[in-house]
Amino acid sequence: MKAVIQRVSDASCTVDGKVTGEIEKGLLIYFCAEAGDREDMIEPFISKISSLRIFRDGNDKMNLSLADVGGSVLLISQFTLAADIRRGRRPSFDKAMGAADAEIFYNEAISILRNKGFKVETGIFGADMKIRYQNDGPVTIIADSGDLF
Predict the structure, then answer these.
(1) Nearest Cα residue to 75 out of 16, 5, 127
(2) Sign of the C-alpha dihedral computed for residues 46, 118, 54 and 122 taken in this order
(3) How far apart are CA 57 and CA 143, in angstroms?
(4) Distance CA 101, CA 111 (A)
(5) CA distance 145 to 28
(6) Residues 6+ apart with CB under 8 A from 80
């Protein structure tokens, strides 16, 4: 699995002109399941992301987690994170998990975050989404489950 995590002041997702998800302070997470990922990897991966201490404390240090600041999550499925650009100019997405299984992983990630008590907003899996956000910092972190397992 891969994720791009952005600390945001606000973020929203629109599909066909309708807002499907909208948050204020929190995390915009682009999430990708890759071929070979296992379901037992989802919970530790999502737990690691949601517990990152990347919000400012009173001393302007990145020392607080999403829970500490009462933040929300906008979780967006993003198979293009599995892109392989080593050959040619057109990315290969062979590393991406098939859509049916990837949607299961995405929905499980949503459930895990909600079970942890976070407000979670989403896009629509497989849809053409328009994402608007204001990166706070900017803070952007790339996470790869291969670094954890």
Answers:
(1) 5
(2) positive
(3) 23
(4) 15
(5) 18
(6) 32, 91, 93, 96
Domain boundaries, the chain: 2-141
The residues near 24 (Cβ < 8 Å, ≥ 6 apart) are: 9, 10, 72
Question: Which residues does residue 22 pair with via DSSP β-bridges, in sequence order?
Answer: 12
DSSP 84: B
pLDDT at 11 exceeding the cut of 80: yes
Three-class SS of residue 45? helix
Question: What tokens were used for 112?
Answer: 């895990």
Residues labelled as active-site residues = 78-80
47-91 residue pLDDT tens? 999 999 999 999 999 999 999 999 999 999 999 999 999 999 999
Q: Top-level CATH class of 2-141?
A: alpha beta
Pairing of strands 72-77, 120-122: parallel
How far is residue 123's CA from residue 55's CA, in Å, rounded to a whole number?
24
138 preceded by cis ω (within 30°)?
Answer: yes
